[in-house]
Amino acid sequence: MTLSPARVPGTGAEVRRLTATLYGYAFLDDLVLLYPVYALLFADTGLTVGQISSLFVLWSMTGVLFEIPSGVWADTVSRRLLLWAGPLLGALGFGLWVLFPSYWAFAAGFVLWGVRGALGTGALEALVYEELDRLGAADRYARVMGRSQAAALLGVMAAMGLAGPVLALGGYGAVGLASVLACLLTAVVAARFPEHRDGEKNRGEGDGWVATLRAGLAEARGNRSVRGALLLVPAVAAVWGALDEYTSLLVRDTGVADTTVPWLLLLVWAGATAGGLLAGAGEHLNDPGLAALLAGSAVALAVGAAAGTPVALVLVALAFGGFQLAHVLADARLQRRIEGSGRATLTSVAGVGTEVTTICVYGAYAVIASATSHGSAFALFALPYLVTGLLLVVRRPFGTDAQ
Description:
Elements: H1 12-29, H2 38-44, H3 49-76, H4 79-99, H5 103-120, H6 123-134, H7 141-190, H8 199-203, H9 209-222, H10 224-243, H11 247-252, H12 261-277, H13 279-282, H14 287-307, H15 313-337, H16 343-371, H17 374-380, H18 383-394
Helix pairs in contact: 1-7, 3-5, 3-9, 3-16, 4-5, 4-6, 4-7, 6-16, 7-12, 7-15, 9-10, 10-15, 10-16, 12-15, 14-15, 14-17, 14-18, 16-17
């Protein structure tokens, strides 16, 4: 059974407070005006595609190193504290980028951003699931997290809409300042998260960090259903999450002006936002249904990216919507299957798998895009989703469908 605080009769006010805080946090966390233009900042500073990819690898490597320790920490100390501290590191990193634009400043910023991401991964999902479970509303998790992802993408879209005008008015300095302010506001909202935890259960048997880590890993080893869900998350999340970092370059290759890039990125992320909002309707998809979703999205990505025209980005938007929906559903499946006290730890294990796979994608992308084009590289990376869809139908690596 889930080791969480005793369930209490949930009131609508308590659920609304939790979800309102979550949606506000998610929106502000991605209201970062640097997001749609930082690849352009790197290129304009003189970095090559290989150097840019090396920064993304450093970012992911930082996540790999800190993901599981931060997940275990989230199971042993306050999750709200980690969600509050992370955005402050992001603010420091973005400040370095615009004050000292150089490869090494970008690298330092990505290390800080990687730590910031590791602090939030696992802690956020575990806090939300267990608070909903405490209020007797755990069945709303997929819907709530889908909406939070949509709120985050609305933040991305707002940043994209604002980035062009702000860039034109004040350059990268103004964009960076706005991004730092967004991080500070995110930390303020994070302090409002409710958190009710049973200290004895959260410390686990034997007390301490090591005992918590062992308990979480033991559940993954001993429960095939959990192990399958852990594999599914990176299989769904990693590739499109890595391609996200190159979307501005993909859009630029369609021949539009730099100031138009953020506006066309709005189209792509509108599709991803729609995918998050559909999580409630899609939470009962079985394995064949999820496989069909991934395959259809893969075809849309390949055709849309290879076409190399602004109009074809509609297909890329549809693909990102499908991948976003599949990502939320994979996370919800994992949360339902976890039964022990190491919820944040196991969620972070899935995060490590995602980061390691993402690093491989960054390396492969640097090679492919240097030899061909961004459109061709995007099209080739649709193939892993076709393979994942096939494996879901076979049902061997991901366990049986427990939805």
